[in-house]
Amino acid sequence: MEYSSEVLKIVEGALKSDKVKVSNYTRLLVEKLKDNNETRLANNFLKILGNSSVTMSQMSTSDSMKIPIDQESRFPMADVLQPIQAADTKVVLDKTANEQIEKFLLYYKNANKLINSGLHIPNSILLYGPPGCGKNKLATYICAKIKLPLVTARLDGMISSYLGSTSKNIRAIFEYAQSVPCILFLDEFDAIAKVRDDNNELGELKRVVNSLLQNIDNLKTGSVIIAATNHEHLLDPAVWRRFVFKIPVDKPNHESRKELISLFLQDNSFSDKEVDLISVAMSGFSGADIEEICNKTNIDSILHEDAISLTFVFNNIFDFLNIGRNINGENLTSKIINWKRANYLRELNKKIFSYAQIALILGTSKSYVSDLLKSKEGNVNE
Questions:
Q1: Is 28 found in the same domain as 89?
Q2: pTM of this prediction?
Q3: Tell me, what DSSP letter sits at residue 131?
Q4: Around Cβ 104, how many Cβ atoms within 10 Å?
Q5: Distance (Å, whole) CA 300 – CA 316
Q6: For residue 124, how far is the Cα from the chain centroid?
Q7: Buried b vs exposed e over 122-158: b needs ≥16 C-beta within 10 Å?
Q8: What is the sign of the dihedral through the CA atoms of 335, 337, 340 and 345?
Q9: CB–CB of 180/139 below 8 Å?
Q10: I need a surface site. Which of 80, 200, 230, 251 has the fewest CB within 10 A?
């Protein structure tokens, strides 16, 4: 049966007298029927809904069930992003992460085939790694690919100062995900999934983890759960077992940095060799760092009404690294600034950062760079 997942959820909702679940999964079914040009059957479902107490306006994801609100702060517990808003999202991943994401998307695309074979659909992903490496963007990308709303839980709205309220909030947001087909995204996951043998934690906070585990177990099919953390070592071991896909999202390697540079820089005409130079200079940078530098370069190019150049890019790299900047009351001369930057590039990689290449980056002559690099810092004068 081609629409097994939706039909099962509709029946499940009907048996539990959950009109919200019935309406939302019927809406999802109608959309899939229309995508497959099964207009007549889609219209039949619409007629049934039109003759019932559930109207199409009630079936709207935004209206059919409101995002839960924390009773203490009155803040909503999540933000919702619709797939159409995520349509242009692009991600650059290393080979391992990309293979895992593609495998998950393949499983989801063939959900009905798996259900018809009596198998559960893997619907849980744990993303972990350093900050700024694209975990949030990856969740947005998956939202666009599987065309489900991305419901990002706001931990400031879920964690309550009242004992017992946090567990209730967790249950409320998971109940929302049970009734509304979506991707439930739990960012900064370690805040509610810490190791339970931490002696510094209160007993109530340990019960929060128990509540979290129970709710993850109950979210079997229909919705997807994605959790992200920068501190995977803090997670309770039982939490790891709840996720089918455990995907490290690390800082980009050389080739990934080159892809990101080409993606973020607008209207650049750099050669592959020049992109190599920029990538080497950005070794150890996160994807967010690279995006920030490229965006500043784009702005510089527009404001100066000049094409993007290596000088624009490297000036922003130097500023990002605080190399040759006047900080902490320093008053560096332009020659000392150039000396610091030239030495940094030579120490980074003497083979590719030749005197001629450094001169091009600094906007000076090769002989000037040669003289600079032969000097010691204390002897560098105007």
A1: no
A2: 0.80
A3: T
A4: 23
A5: 9
A6: 15
A7: bbbbbbbbeebbbbbbbbbbbbbbbbbbbbbbbbebb
A8: negative
A9: no
A10: 200
Q: Which residue has the tokens 């499983």?
A: 107
Q: Which two tokens stand for residue 153?
A: 């839980």
Q: Are residues 79 and 41 in the same domain?
A: no
Residues 136, 34 share a domain: no
Which whole-number Å values give the CA distances from 127 to 130, 133, 240, 369, in the listed order?
Answer: 10, 10, 11, 45
The H or E element containing residue 150 is strand 150-153
Q: In terms of Cα–Cα distance, which of 234, 225, 230, 263 is closest to 92?
A: 263
Same domain, 263 and 339: yes
CB 115 within 8 A of CB 8: yes
Q: Kindly list the strands in the beta sheet with 245-248, ordered across the sheet, starting from the edge strand earlier in the chain.
A: 78-81, 150-153, 183-186, 224-229, 124-128, 245-248
Q: 43, 64, 85: which is the final residue of a domain?
A: 64
Q: Say if CB 179 and CB 20 are below 8 A apart.
A: yes
Cβ atoms 195, 234 nearer than 8 A? yes
pLDDT tens string 351-379: 999 999 999 999 999 999 998 888 775 46
107 and 34 within one domain: no
Of 248, 278, 310, the domain-final residue: 248
Bridge partners of 69, per DSSP, are 76
pLDDT category at 59 given cuts 50, 70, 90 is very low
Mean pLDDT of 50-76: 61
Q: Contact, 49 vs 59, CB < 8 A? A: yes
Residues in the chain: 382
Report how far apart, in Å, the C-alpha atoms of 300 and of each of 51, 266, 269 are. 59, 11, 16
In a shared domain, residues 207 and 262: no
Distance between CA atoms of residues 274 and 290, nearest Å: 15
The Cα–Cα gap between 98 and 83 comes to: 20
121 and 111 in contact (C-beta within 8 Å)? yes
Domain of residue 197, CATH code:
3.40.50.300
Question: Mean pLDDT, to the nearest integer, of 22-42?
Answer: 74
Could you tell me if 188 and 280 lie in one domain? no
Domain that includes residue 53, residue range: 1-64
The strand pair at 150-153 and 224-229 is best described as: unpaired
**Contact (Cβ atoms closer than 8 angstroms) between residue 130 and residue 251:** yes
Tally the domains of the chain: 3
